[in-house]
Amino acid sequence: MKRIVPWIIFIVFAGWALSRMAPKKPGSAFDIAGFGKLPVLAGGRVKPMDTLARVSLLQMNHHGIDGTANNLSSAQVASQAEWLLDVLMLPEHADSTKIFEITDPNILDLFGWQKAANYSFNDLQPFFAKIEEQAGLAAQTEADARNAFQRNIVRLRDVLRFYVQLKNTIQPQDSPDFGKEVQVFQQSIQPGLDAVRNRDAGQPYDDQAFQRIILFTHRYQSWTQAKYAYAIPNPKGKTETDRWSPVSEALLNALSTGQIADSVTFYGRMVSAYRNGDATGFNQALNDYQQYLHKNFSEELNRPTLEYFFNAAQPFYQSLVLYLVVFALAIISWLAWPKTLSRAALLLLGFAFLVHTAGLIIRMYIQGRPPVTNLYSSAIFVGWATVLFCLILERFYKNGIGGVCGSVIGFTTLLIAQNLQFDGDTMEMLRAVLDTNAWLATHVVGEVLGYSAVFLAGLIGIIYIFRGVFTTSFEESTSKTMARMIYGVVCFATLLSLVATVLGGIWADQSWGRFWGWDPKENGALLVVLWNAIILHARWGGFARERGVAVLAVFGNVIGSLSWFGVNMLGVGLHSYGFMDQAFASTLAIFVASQLVIIGIGLLPLKYWRGIRARERRTPQAGGVPAHALPQ
Amino acid sequence: MTGSSVARFFKPVASLRLTIICLACAMFLVFVGTLDQVQIGVYEAQLRYFKSFFLYFNLPGSNFRIPYFPGGYTLGGVLLINLIAAHVSRFKLTWKKAGILILHSGLILLLIGQIVTSLFEEESQIQLDQGQTKNYSESPYFDELAIVDQSKPDSDEVISVPAGRLVKGQTISLPVAGLQLQVDESFENAALINPNQLPSPTYPHLRLGPMAVAVAIPKTYKQDERNQPAAAVTLLKEGQSVGSWALASGFPQPVQFKVGADPYQIVLRPKRYYRPFSITLEDFRHDRYAGTEIAKNFSSKVRLVDPSAHENREALIYMNHPLWYSDLILYQAGFGNNDKTTVLQVMKNPSRLVPYIACGMMALGLLIQFGMHLVSFVRKRVIA
């Protein structure tokens, strides 16, 4: 019976996580899921409409569609894809959805509003001139020098412009019935072209047909300005740029081919049906389009479709929750049922790691890149690698420390990743200098693995200090084991960070012409290497023993966090693709301060360490504990 | 000396304590230097913190400099000596030490290589418009005052004075008999403006022409800007004035004049490095990802002509794919002018391959060292 309990706990939580990963059934009669899987080219890559919806909403606010703000019950809240469908096909409805998050008190004052909340496009409409004026003024200040109000007002203007672009993705936003419009255009092409030809040749021509084709041409030409997303695939295109075009360009192309692209017609049918509330018609048109895509575009459908399920499953979010559960189980196991709960925690940690791994692999496949391509993915990968290290440690030491560390770092790094999604696509295209998988896979991955090991050593150091100072269960064997774990992990950290830094130098030599340029990011990596070297040499020289190494390892957390995030906030140097907002500076400062406090605790004289005092009481000798048994 | 007396001699220099102190100082230096890059830029911080022997504190209101912390050269040098001494005094050729030995030899090689690099490295740029040909590259940081003797029929002779030597009130003897250069005014960085933009007619300025004057502005440390000095000079021949000119490197237009009957030119311009070959930009491409402004690739198709080596060929330079020619390497560094101008970085670094070898050794050393640890650890665990 005792052996089954951990498995039961495991199955309950694992099953719960799995059940949350299936795509939700939308309540709508329209085939929202089918629409969500449709491919579209935006931001340089082909993604499903579902991703376009999520990424777009992230630019506007932090929480997707807020039910309370829009007076909807939770069941009525639209999914992201449903919202996008509205924006693309029924913009007058989307305009009243409250999605634009405004929290800056100065901007609220500008509009005479009080409440920081989400507002709709219609709410903001009366203030467009004001926004343009203020943003225009703010934009005259250099981007780095802008204050919070200036940054936010420029951002609001850009987001509104982006929203208008989005509304014009499938149809001109003012089209009353786009399906009909496409039909009329198709019928006007031939007569119109004849009229133009005759007019040019000085022969009699049909003036009405002539005027009509000129009108259409002007309409679509001015529409080409709005082209954030390219919705129309061109099966005959050779290069990536030829293979996709905005609807406007596809329509203009029809002037030379005489035939409107099929995809435009399908979208026209969908728009008309959607606007009429005709779910059957919409689903039929969507279905026809899907079959057309399968016939002509099948090899490019795999990734967007997989990405749709990836979005729905949110594997990183699920593993984040699971790591939290593991941590809770581990904590409870210290108070009650230690064996059962710690076993369940470990099983669940393994499962969370599997989910995490699956997410990572799918991400790599969708993007066609090594795991780390930006700050967001570096956080995901640091978490993954640390949990892996922890599972290996746990395999050897079987003392539960690996499990606790894995859950803590797994949870923290995934939480960081959630906050690093910023305002956009986490699988964005890579700038020219980064466009090399070989270096991304070696230098960048190595660097990030180095961070993982540094943070792991630091966390074990923290556990060492806390157990020594605050608990009485600080046996000699425990402290020795932990010290050995820290040492082993620091060795790994040194190896990985040194090799990766050096590889980075070689990459820099290949692409910028110098091995080492004292760029902030390079300096950050160097600091990590130097600090690890100091720990190892201090240990070898006998300057730091158990406690010393633990304290030094905690300071590694400070160095690691500064190198990972701190240098990105300086805004200097060539590694500009890793830059981040200074808004994180306060979080970073709090983290650094907390580590310094822990170091201070670790440096308390040993007579204040409860663990050491308890140990002394257990071995009452004339001279107290033999000197060699004391951690120094 | 016997072995033990060698060891005694080296002991203080070879101590591990010194290693740790040096490493800690290096961390402090890197940390402070990196922070200061926000104020003074990457290049200036390099000179002050990393490529220097000491950090100095300037006494306000004087030229007195007090050194207060070792700079990169000092720390690197001490570490190097410490490392070598440690190996000499504790050298033991055993398998157990093989990893450590290889690792540290790699480190020694890396440090020496970086010292050689910082002494002999030469960095310059070629900026080319579509179709343009150049046989020289220019320094991105330094300027020169060039006096060009055009009297010879087939080649020009150039006398170059580094802009840093143009100090107001100085007279510089030129390496041509009897010629001297007198510096009447000098601005480290200058802006070119229209004369009627001057705050007042008496505001200190250098008149470059009817439409432009140069006024002094503070030195810039921004990454995307360079300092453009301006100077007023008088050329003297045997103490007699040949002519006086106001020159600005922001407007590097040569001025013609004569010494006796010989035609000359004078110009203040970015420092030039002449090459035995020429480069022509045939085509510059800047590809973006479909529907975005994100750069996917920059590439320059150039023609390389070197009459002395009988070379005349095309080459494609793009990100992560430089052109190697003679002892130079040309990289795609930038672009401008609506994608019609390319900027190629030209590097000359005699010790360029050293880091590659050093790094290989360090990685190998670490792998051997920690590999042995790991194997013995796993073996112990398995037995236990």
Characterization of this structure:
The complex is a heterodimer of chains A (632) and B (384). Chain A is built from 26 helices and 7 strands. Chain A has 632 residues and is mainly alpha-helical. Chain A has 4 domains: 1-16 and 314-429, no CATH class; 63-167, no CATH class; 178-303, no CATH class; 445-632, no CATH class. In chain A, the strands form 3 sheets. Chain A has a 3-stranded antiparallel sheet. A two-stranded antiparallel ribbon of chain A has the order 3-4. In chain A, a hairpin with a 2-residue loop joins strand 1 (39-42) and strand 2 (45-48). Chain A is elongated, with a radius of gyration of 30 Å. Residues 622-632 of chain A have low confidence and may be disordered. Chain B is of the alpha+beta class. Chain B folds into 2 domains: 3-121 and 353-383, no CATH class; 124-348, no CATH class. Chain B contains 5 helices and 19 strands. In chain B, the strands form 5 sheets. In chain B, strands 4, 5, 13, 14, 15 and 16 form a 6-stranded antiparallel sheet that branches. In chain B, strand 13 (255-259) and strand 14 (262-288) form a beta hairpin. In chain B, helix 4 (95-120) runs antiparallel to helix 5 (354-383). Chain B is globular, with a radius of gyration of 27 Å. The two termini of chain B are 48 Å apart. In chain B, 27% of the residues are buried. The mean pLDDT of chain B is 86. At the A-B interface, strand 5, helix 12, helix 22 and helix 23 of A face helix 2, strand 15, strand 18 and helix 5 of B.
